């Protein structure tokens, strides 16, 4: 594997494993995550042979693991969207008032002081050792004070079915291991007490070897849980991971809607729930030298049960990651909570979109469309595509977007699904050096708004269904590309729409509703391109294609093209392979179309495509309805 040429974090030049495994086996020398050891001394990186005088928070001790291990989706079972909970989070009792604490002196409290800890009202369930205190049974425990090298371990009996509640009540805890390690508990919950500021930080190496289920285990994160873990409470928590991951659970991780402020900085992945990750609230900031947030369940049976899910139903989430922003081995779902709460997600992945802008010429652009339209394309492939995965949102199965506001700036694909990608609502804005939205199977837009302000290709899928919503794409290559089906030979198109001779791969682009805008730059570029069929029976489609070489143009199909309804209006500089074409000289100063549709192009040309009759100058749009694309207030189509 080639190392990516662009990593926005200096320390990220060390190749990292994919967020650590959960096998319960310790790591090899210098590698966070996997392997085995014979003694605690053997897992020290480099030539360090003793922990004597070791500063566990010296990040210069981080060594380079052999390679980045990327999980394969070859054994992933595709999970139907029927298994996805449509909205709601089932937390009606989860309010910030739950974590308003007024101590009356009767609570079991762990008070940290430099290198020691004292306990008040010991309930007989705490076991104290050097640099660690172990919680042995369920109950409420209040943590406060400051320690430079101390650890809290939760290890309850398997017969204890109660919950362990750790109240972070103004605690600052550093440890050469994981400051909080939940080894065994039926349920565990971290409470960020209202009005408090808390911090947790681990060391840059690991010397401690734990025993879990008869196996050696190394804590792979600052907050490391082998069982389910929930986080709630309106206080604040800062997590600094100098070794590997910030927050890591082997089972389900839930960040509840009452969560306050959560800041995570990590040498590898920021927040990981291996079985699942659910975020229902919180002001969450993640800076990661690996992936931002993820679920990477790899057990086939658990995947079939719906595990490997990242579900976001609330909160304000800001992710800056060297690799993928959000990653799931199964499904990513962005929805709204049980009330009107909707998430806000901002992702910068792999340094963001930087390459295409350096290779294209803008021409001013329309308001709100991202500052300029591309002037040049890339023939024969995308030279900006990275070697490693640096996607905004990635799922090995399905992606479902139902609500919220998503802003993605990525070096790789903006939103990428190895299964189906469905948009039912919300607002998504993407700029990328690769594809805006890509589905290996079906890409379906039913509602919401999607704007791709810069991309190599705007939207791609083996099957593309535009049933509603508002979309806009600005690209240097194809605007829409239906590709990836099974090849069949075709002898041309049916009835009046020209004839393209080629090999249809069974792909299809189908438009039945919605409003859609496509802009493509110069070169061998296509507006609406299908390696199979094109079927337009409804909706409104506006295409601007500045193609100046090759074949294709505004509408290009290798199979059949059927346009029986809707409204199609295309502006170009060359002939289009498909569609009824008209020679119309147009400029950027006037509206063009018919009495049913009008649009003001962004450039001058002489070729137009229309399915609603001879296009001409439209002197007035009074009395017509207006639909603007994306966040623009000027890039709008008028229609009746």
Characteristics of this structure?
640 residues; mainly beta; 24-stranded parallel beta barrel
Helix content: under 10%
Task: Give the end-to-end Cα distance, rounded to a whole number of Å.
Answer: 54 Å
What does the average pLDDT come to? 82
Number of helices: 1
Low-pLDDT parts are 1-17, 24-92, 358-380, 486-501
Total beta strands:
53
Please identify the structural class as seen in this structure.
mainly beta
Gyration radius over CA? 27 Å
Beta-strand residue percentage: 35-45%
Overall geometric form: elongated
The largest β sheet comes out as: 24 strands, parallel, barrel
Structure notes:
This protein has 640 residues and is mostly beta strands. Among the domains are: 81-308, no CATH class; 458-639, no CATH class. Helices cover 1% and strands 43% of the residues. The chain contains one helix and 53 strands. A hairpin with a 2-residue loop joins strand 11 and strand 12 (215-217). It is elongated and about 85 Å long.
Quick recap of the structure?
The protein is an all-beta fold.
Strands, helices and their partners?
Layout: E1 109-114, E2 116-120, E3 126-129, E4 132-135, E5 139-147, E6 151-155, E7 163-175, E8 180-184, E9 187-192, E10 197-202, E11 210-212, E12 215-217, E13 221-225, E14 229-232, E15 236-241, E16 245-249, E17 252-255, E18 261-266, E19 271-273, E20 276-279, E21 283-288, E22 293-295, H1 300-304, E23 309-312, E24 316-321, E25 326-328, E26 332-334, E27 344-349, E28 393-395, E29 399-401, E30 405-410, E31 415-417, E32 421-423, E33 427-432, E34 435-445, E35 449-455, E36 457-466, E37 470-475, E38 480-482, E39 488-490, E40 502-504, E41 508-511, E42 515-520, E43 526-530, E44 533-545, E45 553-557, E46 561-572, E47 581-586, E48 591-593, E49 597-599, E50 605-610, E51 616-618, E52 625-628, E53 636-639
Parallel strand pairs: 1-5, 4-6, 5-7, 6-8, 7-9, 7-10, 8-13, 9-14, 10-15, 13-16, 14-17, 15-18, 16-19, 17-20, 18-21, 19-22, 20-23, 21-24, 22-25, 23-26, 24-27, 25-28, 26-29, 27-30, 28-31, 29-32, 30-33, 31-34, 32-34, 33-35, 34-36, 35-37, 36-38, 36-41, 37-42, 38-43, 41-44, 42-44, 43-45, 44-46
Antiparallel strand pairs: 1-2, 3-4, 11-12, 39-40, 46-50, 47-50, 48-49, 48-51, 49-53, 52-53
